[in-house]
Design a protein that fits this description.
The chain is an alpha+beta fold. The chain has a single domain, classed as Peptide deformylase (Peptide Deformylase), CATH 3.90.45.10. Helix content is about 30%, strand content about 30%. It contains four helices and seven strands. The protein has a five-stranded antiparallel beta sheet, sandwiched between helices. A two-stranded antiparallel sheet has the order 4-5. A hairpin with a 2-residue loop joins strand 4 and strand 5. The radius of gyration is 16 Å and the shape is globular.
Length: about 190
């Protein structure tokens, strides 16, 4: 599937709730989203990013070379997510996005969130997600609300291309975020 890029109006639209009866006909979309995310090397992908306005996202981290510091996330299909912070702890994460190629910036994300959602079979889940996994869930849920990480960057001086991040900022970020992951886990 073609990943929509910043400037495409579909990325600024709020996706609509999925009715459980629709899930059988959305299985092909879900499979295509998983394949697209994996091919692009992403940690997650929201339906808006492929031009669809159902509240569906997929997430997976399995030794991703783009994000070697991210703890594993088993393949997770999330339908109609509700993400709520469970405390006030925040972490600064340098984020990028498949829909905003070659640009990164620092975003504050909640460290601990409650995630309520349906899986691809309509089974309800109510989970606590922590650390970078919580950050990934928040980033992808933002997409479903028409919000890009660009909107959440509080200090525009943190914007950098991928090459410049690798050259000047990666080592310090990886050191800081690795210590964070060791402290909080996922």
């Amino acid at each position: 599937m073609r990943i929509r890029q910043v400037g495409d109006p579909v990325l600024r639209e709020r996706a609509r709730e999925v009715v459980v009866d629709e899930l059988p006909e959305l299985q092909g979309l879900i499979d295509d989203m998983i394949a697209t995310m994996r091919e692009a090397g992403g940690a997650g992908l929201a339906a808006n990013q492929v031009g669809d306005l159902h509240r569906i996202l997929v997430a997976e981290v399995d030794h991703n070379p783009r994000y070697p510091y991210k703890p594993p996330i088993p393949l997770t299909v999330i339908v109609n997510p509700v993400i709520e912070p469970i405390d006030d702890e925040l972490v600064e994460i340098n984020e990028g996005c498949l829909s905003v190629p070659n640009l990164r910036g620092s975003v504050m994300r909640h460290v601990n969130v409650r995630a309520r959602y349906l899986d691809r079979d309509g089974v309800a889940h109510d989970e606590i997600r922590r650390g970078l996994t919580a950050g990934t869930f928040q980033h992808e849920c933002d997409h479903l609300d028409g919000v890009l990480f660009l909107d959440r960057v509080v200090d525009p001086t943190t914007f950098t291309t991928w090459d410049q991040f690798e050259r000047f900022h990666r080592a310090a970020f990886v050191e800081r975020i690795t210590a964070f992951v060791e402290r909080v886990g996922s």
